[in-house]
Automatic annotation (TrEMBL):
The protein, known as: NADH-FMN oxidoreductase RutF, flavin reductase (DIM6/NTAB) family
Domain Flavin reductase like positions: 10-150
SUPFAM superfamilies noted in UniProt: FMN-binding split barrel (SSF50475)
Any one of the GO BP annotations: pyrimidine nucleobase catabolic process
Keywords from the UniProt entry: Oxidoreductase
GO MF entries: FMN binding; riboflavin reductase (NADPH) activity
Amino acid sequence: MEDRLFRDAMGKFATGVTVITTLHEGQPHGMTANAFMSVSLDPKLVVISIGGNARCLSRIKESGIFAVNILAANQQEQSMIFAGQIKEDREVTFETLADIPVIPNALAQVSCDVVTEYIEGDHTLFIGKVRDIRVQDGEPLLFYAGKYRSLETVPV
């Protein structure tokens, strides 16, 4: 099977957009990702998937911490910055949640300690035990078929 067919098929699954952040050598770092899910309620665990070529991979491995920032509909620029789609320098500000850098105004911020990592194919899966969570109301930024999207309310 060709890579393009696989990518096209996976693109048919609408996802939220996250920025995964970490603190490495005293500096915040981040990357855009949509490979995130909850794993367990007791204990509270989540999983992220990071590509083998991503700069954040070694930073998360070394720091042992990460945060998942679920972006709001008005945060497409932040997604594009951390995905490397915006090349010129933009100032990025961070807050902290349980001593881990997070993106201000994200719909949800989930700070985690890495408890396990698995290398599968060309990605590393990090299972994180949740340290703390911050949530706010708003609409999510979505990604579908290679494009950013937003929710539409449909009468029932």
